[in-house]
Amino acid sequence: MIQPKVSVIIPCYKVEKYLDRCVESVINQTLKDLEIILVDDESPDHVPEICDEWALKDARIKVIHKKNGGLGMACNSGIEVATGKYVAFLDSDDWIDANMYQTMYDTAEKHQAQMVFTGLRRVDTNGNVIGYLTHKEKFQIYEGKNEIDGLACDLVASEVSLAAERTLQMSAKVVLYSKSTIDENHLRFVSEREVMSEDMHFNLNMLSHSQCVCVVPRFFYNYRCTTGSITQKVDLDQFERIKSLYFFTLKECQILGIEENIYQRIQRFFIGYVRNYIRVVCRSKSSISEQIKIIQMIVNDPVWNIIWLSYPIHVAPLKQRLFVRLIQKKRIRILKILLKYK
């Protein structure tokens, strides 16, 4: 049996409205030598039947029906059965341009790369483009530990002084991976139910085992965004998970030997996660008193205070400086007004 060039792993859960478009975008790729793996994560809607119907239509499609375990575990189930030379991941409510995998495969083959990154478009529920996510302006090749460690730093967060939060997308769905590198190093996703941002940790581990990485500054991936929704209830455990993510990332970078400038970058991504969480709190339907209580909890947290005391806020972008200063001085009501509308 001839080995497929790319195995495309698509975790599926509660996406009956979008799954057909997603699968069609893979079937219609200009690169035809694909293996398509649909992982039904015990979806309670019609996803299981839709997956099985697609498998009857196209011999390249495999279906896994598994007990619900979350996105990371669904990706791992796909990795276990994937036979392609390369592996890609695709969210089942998104879709991709027809030449995505051909371009990434050709790039990987030409440069013998273990990873190929690309950019993505953010689209609304009607398919209208609302933004682009990539910060590499030209095609780049990274080789050797120093260059790839620098890329790993970019994945975590930008240098403190830069306006962009990061200069490389952390999402696994915009990366083509060498399957042999995954297998030889027994790489798997952590569960997002245990650690936030499972994609970043998978990518950090892949980078540490890569000799060549390419970045293609083109937009093939259409990431569906649901905008304008208001959170009914705030997840009170979210801040604790953000702290766990901070310590997990710090430890992992130390184990992987990624050292240069990484500490300040981990601080920066922690501050960014906290800012986004406070923004969610401020825009929620929780009472004003409950919102203030949550923000006060963060302001008084010892981990937060240790981080901002050592963070070089004087060289940070204006918005970040303002956010940190308001928290430092415990100007909670001003902070709430600022983040509710920004």
Keywords:
342 residues; alpha/beta; Spore Coat Polysaccharide Biosynthesis Protein SpsA, Chain A; 2 domains; 10-stranded mixed beta sheet; 13 helices; globular
Q: Can you walk through the features of this model?
A:
By secondary structure, the chain is α/β, with parallel strands linked by helices. It folds into two domains: 6-134 and 169-224, Alpha-Beta Complex (Spore Coat Polysaccharide Biosynthesis Protein SpsA, Chain A); 238-341, no CATH class. Helix content is 46%, strand content 18%. The protein has 13 helices and ten strands. It has helices spanning 19-27, 47-57, 71-81, 100-111, 144-156, 179-184, 198-208, 238-256, 262-283, 288-299, 302-310, 318-328, 332-341; strands at residues 6-12, 34-40, 61-65, 86-89, 95-96, 115-123, 129-133, 140-143, 175-178, 212-224. Strands 1, 2, 3, 4, 5, 6, 7, 8, 9 and 10 form a ten-stranded mixed sheet that branches. Helix 5 packs antiparallel against helix 7, helix 7 (198-208) packs parallel to helix 8 (238-256) and helix 8 (238-256) packs antiparallel against helix 9. The radius of gyration is 21 Å and the shape is globular. The N and C termini lie far apart (55 Å). InterPro entries: Glyco_trans_2-like (IPR001173), Nucleotide-diphossugar_trans (IPR029044). Keywords: Glycosyltransferase, Transferase. This is Glycosyl transferase 2 family protein. Residues 7-147 form the Glycosyltransferase 2-like domain. It comes from Bacteroides uniformis str. 3978 T3 ii.
